[in-house]
Amino acid sequence: MREDHVRPRSEQTEWPTAKTRKRATHSPTSRRVGGDQIDYIDEKPEIRRIFTTELAKHGIAPRMDAAYAKEMAELGVKSW
């Protein structure tokens, strides 16, 4: 039995519903064209190192090399 069933109505937990959830405020558009998504090629090298290290802690190897290479070919130079 959930404890909400034994609490007074005024103390019950409100679960998110379609009416109470907030919409995401980010844009999946590249910063290069006015959005707020950082392209792989533009992320700082430290971010990729952290990503690789965290995956390794769980015995997982990154498989992003193809995505990085594709973006490098398409976008060319870093924006920073």
Précis, in short:
Helices cover 30% and strands 0% of the residues. It is mainly α and 80 residues long. The longest helix is centred in the middle third of the chain and has 13 residues, at 45-57.
Structure description:
There is one protein chain. This protein is mainly α and 80 residues long. It has a domain at 38-80. It is 30% helix and 0% strand. It is built from 2 helices and no strands. The protein is flat and about 60 Å long. The N and C termini lie far apart (55 Å). The model has no long low-confidence stretch (mean pLDDT 78).
Write the layout of secondary structure elements.
Blueprint: H1 45-57, H2 65-75
Shape: flat
Q: Assembly type of the shown chains?
A: single chain
The CA-CA distance between the termini, in Å, is 55 Å
Name the poorly predicted regions.
Answer: none
Strand content range = under 5%
Please give a handful of descriptors for the protein shown.
mainly alpha; 2 helices; 80 residues
